[in-house]
Design a protein that fits this description.
disordered N terminus; seven-stranded mixed sheet; 545 residues; 6 helices; 14-stranded mixed sheet; single chain; alpha+beta
Length: 545
């Protein structure tokens, strides 16, 4: 039942002048299905403690931003009446603020009061300093304006006034010094205010959830509600450890899951399902518009454009055609695998806790074994060493999903790679790092006159190259050498090539012009392959590589 049908269902329940009571119940998250982007969350609401009859249920703590049209509700032992999804304000009759918010507000108020008291004390010191300076000024002015002082008393009065001025200025200095020394205590108080503001904002964010208000008629003692909704603030991706043991020719694949969620609520001890479905992605093929090209007379276009240049006329014609077309266009010991249609889902064993906004969680999914053929592969034209390559097949009953993989060779970590989507039965080739003891070299030999192996004429080009491989390791290696020859896509460009020895495979997997030489390279041995190519074309034309 969609949210709109929730509201319509209220018309089917007779209105009552007053409700029996209003009950606030925190829904319990019990199951989460995570997609590559988004998640479906299911909550349970137990009505066992509520008496039978009509009730208005206040269900707080749902994630913000939930799509009302994706909200679902089912009832056992109760009949659903009206439903309202509230955001941003509490329902009448519920507590305005939680104790956590009240405590955070009290902490912020205390921090601000402490700063007010601090500034009041500094202001008192500064006022004292101004007062003593003002007294010194008054004494100075009185001495300057008092003409009744006799000559015999002038010295004594001046000394007395001077002492008073010095005393007042000293007290002003002391008060100013106290105010200046106190300024160093301002920063900690301001920091306390910032921290209290951040703590309050965090609590408000934690409690800024949506509230569902449901009118129900309880008809059974064991009544309960089941809610589900969709949030986009979650995702999962596969993560792999691939461990190749050359002696056994096996790849141990340890599969893991990396999960993130910022739904606004913690998922505490929930049952977890990982699905490969993409509910937030494209669900239908793109409609292909009709293609209706038209032709025009270039001379007419040129006249209309004031004898424009041919290039400009061509651009105008292309624009005209494009315009016409546009107008016509309209993770633990083992997860249980469950195929739902064309979707793969993993039921994770055991309860899982994933906190809101926390770092990515990695959960172990399972372990698989793949049989592989291990060999050394070298491309002397580009690399100066050979690499370990394991050729295997996806022998699982499910696809290998794309994701990052950490590679281990005989127990040692050697690097990382990205796996592509591999369907069951498809080939999977994995590289496990360089073999420093097998060197690769491309050499162009010189002829008797000291000229290099490249021969050019106005309508021909010949090239002789040598591929040299050396096994400096202490063991034999099955070796595959990979190189290329030019491929002509024009009838008047002729390409001939020869190789000594002949390649064991040409155009593998439909890759035209690619050559394989595959054989055993014993410890201490070397291998040379001579490759000659000839290209010819008509006079007056140029070869572009």
């Amino acid at each position: 039942m969609t949210f709109r049908r929730f509201l319509a269902a209220a018309l089917c329940v007779a209105a009552s002048p007053t409700l029996a009571d209003r009950i606030e119940i925190q829904p319990r998250t019990d199951h989460v299905t995570i997609f590559p982007q988004g998640a479906t969350i299911r909550w349970q609401v137990d009505l066992a403690d509520a008496p039978q009859g009509r009730h208005e249920l206040i269900l707080p703590g749902l994630p913000q931003g939930m799509d009302p049209s994706a909200l679902r509700i089912e009832a056992e032992g109760a009949t659903i009446g009206s439903v309202a999804l509230q955001t941003g304000r509490p329902h009448p009759g519920t507590a305005a603020e939680s104790p956590a918010i009240t405590d955070a507000r009290d902490r912020l108020r205390a921090a601000r009061d402490a700063l007010i008291d601090f500034e009041h004390t500094i202001a008192r010191h500064r006022a004292d300093a101004d007062s003593w300076r003002e007294r010194a000024g008054i004494v100075r002015d009185m001495m300057r304006g008092d003409t009744r002082v006799g000559a015999d008393q002038l010295q004594a009065n001046a000394d007395q006034a001077g002492q008073m001025i010095a005393d007042y200025l000293a007290r002003a200095s002391d008060a100013g010094r106290e105010a200046a020394l106190m300024e160093s205590g301002r920063e900690p108080l301001e920091r306390d205010i910032r921290q209290a503001e951040e703590a309050l904002a965090a609590v408000l964010n934690d409690t800024a959830h949506e509230t569902l208000v449901v009118t129900v008629e309880k008809t059974s003692d064991d009544a309960r509600l089941s809610l589900s909704g969709f949030t986009r603030q979650a995702s999962w991706a596969p993560d792999y450890d691939l461990r190749l043991e050359r002696d056994s020719g096996r790849i141990a694949m340890q599969r893991g899951l990396v999960i993130t969620q910022s739904s606004g609520i913690d998922w505490q001890d929930v049952a977890l399902t990982l699905s490969t479905a993409r509910p937030s992605g494209q669900v239908a093929p793109t409609e292909v518009p009709g293609w209706m090209p038209s032709i025009v007379d270039p001379a007419t276009l040129m006249r209309n454009q004031g004898a424009a240049a041919p290039a400009v006329a061509g651009a105008v014609a292309e624009s005209y055609i494009a315009s016409d077309a546009a107008q016509d266009s309209p993770v633990a010991a083992k997860a249980v695998l469950a195929n739902i249609g064309m979707t793969v889902a993993y039921d994770y064993p055991g309860p899982v806790t994933i906190r809101d906004g926390a770092d990515a969680n990695r959960l172990r999914l399972d372990d698989k074994l793949l049989e592989a053929e291990v060999l050394a592969e070298a491309a002397p034209r580009f690399d100066d060493t050979a690499f370990v390559v394991a050729e295997t097949t996806n022998s699982l009953d499910e696809p290998i999903l794309p994701g990052p993989a950490t590679l281990y060779l005989d127990g040692a970590m050697i690097g990382q790679t990205m796996l592509e989507l591999t369907a069951p039965g498809d080939d999977l080739d994995l590289a496990f790092g360089p073999i420093d003891g097998i060197t690769a070299e491309l050499r162009v030999p010189e002829d008797e006159q000291g000229e290099r192996g490249l021969i050019r004429r106005s309508n021909a080009q010949g090239l002789t190259e040598t591929l040299i491989l050396r096994n400096l390791t202490g063991e034999d290696w099955p070796l595959r050498v990979v190189d290329r020859v030019p491929v002509s896509r024009q009838s008047d460009l002729t390409v001939d090539w020869s190789a000594d020895p002949q390649p064991s495979e040409t155009d593998p997997d439909g890759r035209r012009g690619i050559l394989y030489w595959q054989d055993l390279l014993a410890a201490g041995d070397s291998r040379e392959i001579t490759l000659t190519t000839q290209m010819r074309w008509p006079e007056g034309k140029e070869l572009r590589r």
